[in-house]
Amino acid sequence: MTELDVLKAQAKIELQKLEAQASAKEVAAKAIGKEAVGWIFLLVLVGVGSAAFLPSDALPAVIGLVATATMALIQMVNGIVNEAKTPEKPEITIIKELIARLDKDDPMQVDVKGDKVTVTKGLDRITTGA
Fold first, then answer.
1. What is the four-CA torsion angle of 122, 127, 128, 130, rounded to 10 degrees?
2. Do 111 and 81 touch, CB atoms closer than 8 A?
């Protein structure tokens, strides 16, 4: 093996590692992106071909269906490729904040006076009871 063959093999291995780490959304977007152009082209050909073979009465319906299918396919591909990141749910943000507070090395103090319990950790204070 020459050095060039070794470099090509290493590059191929690295590319496969990157592809293996891709999310399902990225893999689906690539697959649909490769196939969608052909399907859109086929739908346009059906629309143009129907103009040559169908009577003029049926043409608006066929063109309308082809246009609708083409637009739906384009919107589907666009939705997959350009999907907006959804904001993190508020409860997850609160849980992360609580975990960060718990990770602090502030001492915890618990005061019990009858039915009243006060827990203090750093600047946070929680009181329960009467």
1. 160
2. no
